[in-house]
Queue: 2 jobs
Job 1
Amino acid sequence: MSLPSPFYSAIHTIVVSDLHLADAEPPHPKKPLWKRFKGKDLFIDGTFKLFLEKIQKIVPGPIELIFNGDVFDFDSVMTLPAKPEFSISWLERRRGLAPEEAKSRFKIQVILDAHSTWLESVREFILNGNRVVFNIGNHDMELHWPSVCRDLQNRMNLPEQFQDSVRFTEWFYISNQDTLIEHGNQYDAYCLCSNPIHPLIKKRGKVLMRLPFGNLAGKYMLNGMGLMNPHVDSSFIKDSVFEYMIFFMRYVIRTQPLLLFAWFWSAIATLIVSLQEGFHRALNDPLTVDTRVEGIAQRANSTVPVVWALKEVHAHPAIFSPLKILRELWLDRAILFSLVIFISFEIFATVNVFANISIAWIVIPFLILLPMFIFYARSVESEVSKLQKVAFAMIPFSARIAKVSRVIQGHTHQEIHTQIKGIEYFNTGTWSPAFHDIECTKAYGRKCFAWIKPDLNNPRNRICSLYEWTGTDIVLIPINETDQFYATNSSH
């Protein structure tokens, strides 16, 4: 009988998520605000290094550090190799490399080169006797490539006796048999990995990672719309037409006047790639599936039945509802508006056959039809908010499957500590370069983390709280603050 893994038990566990480490955007003298949020001066490396140093001073004994998904943002890496050893398509040159193995390995090297301070701080943390778990999210799905994980470990340059202090888990991890830790994207129909047990597909003779629709939208659309920060919805979703007009006149007209054209062709590309890849059959070998699932269970401190059961409560991929995809891309409104223009022209052309009228008369049928378009456009609501409510409803089921009373997630970039049907729920928010403004002067959210530690009243049990790293100190976030936050933002 084999001895239990040293990862099986933990005294102190720290959970952070959504760092979104990527490459640095080079300066654009003529467009200083273009992807300002990716500026090297806004990297979190320095403050994260201070955070790890502070944690080790106040936490006794070895620490289990969980990077709970989206630690790396492969989708936003735009750097291309100077001398590529692989073919690069026209679309990849404009929106980033595809998730093929060799290209994913190139991207992780680019990210680690840009974030050497972060990498060194994690290495020192491990050498001090602590351990690290990388739980895969939707933006770092390319960690599913074993070679990418090996490249990351090799760059840490750990001595042989510390090699086993790093672990990679497919989508969930059970800490000390009391806490289920998962990124949370598996309950989001737009961002889930369709098959985290078998995430690969074969397309045109090439094996690649199947990315979710939400990732493809960010990759092909937001990578080409540099004034819009992908880490904050409010940067590209406004409350009214008036706000869009102000945004266009203040920023877009000088930096990207052809934004509508960029959006349209990028949305079409997203739709085509999503449909092409979404319906592909997952690559799997029936002879090795048992071994694969056993490995997932072992790395997650779990069992095979729990792996299968957790997979069953995942959301159904939105790609199987193309109309929803059209709505999220706003292509349904583009099609309807084009139809209004076409019908208006047809009415004008028909009338012009019987009476020679000015082309200006085309405005009349257009104005008659326009209210119908406006009514439809205003009636369409994003499914994302509804899906978030569904995700919260699934938390008690996941906790019951994992036999825990506590669940910690990330993904939504909204820090939360609350109770959901008797299950203690945490969301650690985001450390990403998220800002309310284009100039990146007003930070969005707080750099939060969950700390699970022994209960002083009952050392056999562990308790958990949500904390904020201010840059110099660690501050407890009262549950009433996040309860209120949850109540007012649970629709997002």
Note: The domain at 7-211+272-327+383-489 is CATH 3.60.21 (Purple Acid Phosphatase; chain A, domain 2).
Job 2
Amino acid sequence: MGCCGFARKLEEYARELPVVEVQQTFYQPPQVRTAERWRRRVPDGFVFTLKAWQLVTHPPTSPTYRRLSRPVPASQLDRYGFFAPTEEVHEAWARTLEVARALRAAVVVFQCPASFTPTPAHVENLRRFFRRAPRDGLQLAWEPRGPWPEGLVRQLCQDLDLIHCTDPLAAPSVYGRVRYYRLHGRGGYRYRYTEEDLRQLRGRCTAPAYVLFNNVSMWEDALRFRDLLRREG
């Protein structure tokens, strides 16, 4: 278990929790040498996961594009996001993959916006991207948002060898040899998980699982979940 983001200085974080999901790679991937430095600062058994760069998953209309180091040229707005079959998207994946290699990461998460709906064009983009994208032994997790039918999600994950990433207290994961859970807060980011929530979460971990908290009290909630697991075995 761990947090979506560095909730403390890295060395302190790694003393308490075994996994972190790097968020910077979604907004603007760091330099490879920065990722290599992060890897050297933690024990060998510490696990990094990370989010794929938003240029792969999100269109330029997303407000998160404001955090890019360079704006997307107006003439190229249709060449980014939604797994588009463009060189720009595949270059963005190559940049993400460089950082993942440097971190010796275990999983890359593709978090999609709610506007990435299950249209035929989007499904085809998704299939084409994951069939072509190099993986270098990484596990890939897909977090769809919006009205994706459960059967379609299961079939796509099975066909493309993806982990279905969910918030397990909101929706079940329907495919994956391991589970990848992201806890966004019941009703919003400011939610603090109760002891009963954490027990329910433990009950959802019927297979090996990455459990990453992504709420305002994520550090405290991750530690409480760690302690619950230690007490109950």
Note: The chain is about 40% helix and 15% strand.
